Amino acid sequence: MNQTMDRTDMLFGNMNDHMASKSLLFSAGIRMMAAAAIVFSLFGCAASQRQVGKPDDQAWVHFTCRLPNGETAISTYKDGNDDPPQKSLIYIPRKANTPIKISTFNKSFEAPDYAGRGFEDEVSFQLSKTLGGRKVGEKYSVEITSEKRTEKRAGEYSMVIARVRERPREMRFTRDEYQARTKNNSPEIGRSFIFDPAIPGRIDSVSETEVVVRFFADPGQEVFTPFGKGTVRVLPNKYEIVINAQVGTLVRTGGWIGRISAVDEWNISIDYSHPFGWEKLQCDVLIEPAGQEGPKREASKRE
Q1: 156 by DSSP, 3-state: which?
Q2: What predicted TM-score, i.e. pTM, was given to this entire model?
Q3: 79-130, pLDDT tens digit by residue?
Q4: Are residues 142 and 290 in the same domain?
Q5: Same domain, 99 and 37
């Protein structure tokens, strides 16, 4: 599993360049990384009403894909193209409002390392199969899905994490350690410090040799985690976050989408064996003229 997670030769190109990155590190030591991508040539096709359906042709594409419940799962539009916004927990907003370049699917070619493709890469790949015979300027809607990843060994794409997370009430650093963690920020009393966004901290005291950070949460406080809402328990020397995970919930870990498959008192089991978490996506697609990829361009809205 780790070998496929660490692959970075994916297809999604320009979109990942503008997506906010997220990563999680579990006590089991398993890291799932957001997929990096091949950056395609910026020289596109002519901006006429030509077809883009030939194998290995390329098109600038805008799209928004939604889950069956109507929530946006992925979009090339900065705001997700929703008014009002209805975003899934697996949605990551983009920093740019630009289309991405997708190569038209060639039936004789399967993208390498299918098992290692992350969510953005798989959406891009599945959409590439729908471009055949279409023209620049065309809008269309299409349903896409994927296939279960083939396991080389049982449980290769499943993971069990702790349902109860421990977080410190206090952390102590040398000044050098603090600056290394905060990219050389100078320690000042009252300055915020983030160890876990669910429980914020701030600098409580500073001396010539030590920086003391204290974290603050109330008993019973409800906090957000990527695996469901959590409830804070306050103990004498630590906090505990009890995650109220629900079976069937879609979750995101780096570039991978999973579905919670089991929950007990101590553990949460997550199934990552399907690139879309066993869902089908309904996508609204717009093929843009070449040369419309500039960062100052305002993206067209879905009608």
Answers
A1: coil
A2: 0.71
A3: 776 665 688 989 998 888 899 998 886 555 555 556 678 999 999 999 999 9
A4: yes
A5: yes
